[in-house]
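Practice problem 4.
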């Protein structure tokens, strides 16, 4: 088991952001675990969202940049199956210890995870033009 844990952590990279003794457990988890995973999985998230938008009749690609941002946010907040799929792409890269920490406060950590993913996708909205 230790091989998987250390391999995952080495693969996705170290902490992104500052973690101090004053950092809350959630903030620490966010910077040590969530941010590196979201960064590592970025290209996959772009492809997954592009595929989702295509399957939704491609309306997304005809929208203005502002409306695309709203679409991204609404989709991730309202489409439970899609959101759960995205969560699975993150949780699958947790070490066992990280998963144990995650389940202690999964509700708040899920909110952080999805908010960070929404902001990540919105900041790259121009990358979605390729599929139009």
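Answer key:
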């Amino acid at each position: 088991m230790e091989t998987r844990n250390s391999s995952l952590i080495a693969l996705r990279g170290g902490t992104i952001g500052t973690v101090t003794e004053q950092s809350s457990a959630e903030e620490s988890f966010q910077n040590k675990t969530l941010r590196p995973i979201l960064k590592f999985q970025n290209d996959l998230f772009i492809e997954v969202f592009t595929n989702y938008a295509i399957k939704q009749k491609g309306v997304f690609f005809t929208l203005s940049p502002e409306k695309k941002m709203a679409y991204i946010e609404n989709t991730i907040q309202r489409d439970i199956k899609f959101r759960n799929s995205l969560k699975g792409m993150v949780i699958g890269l947790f070490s066992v210890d990280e998963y144990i920490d995650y389940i202690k406060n999964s509700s708040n950590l899920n909110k952080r995870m999805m908010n960070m993913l929404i902001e990540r996708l919105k900041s790259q909205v121009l990358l979605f033009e390729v599929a139009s």
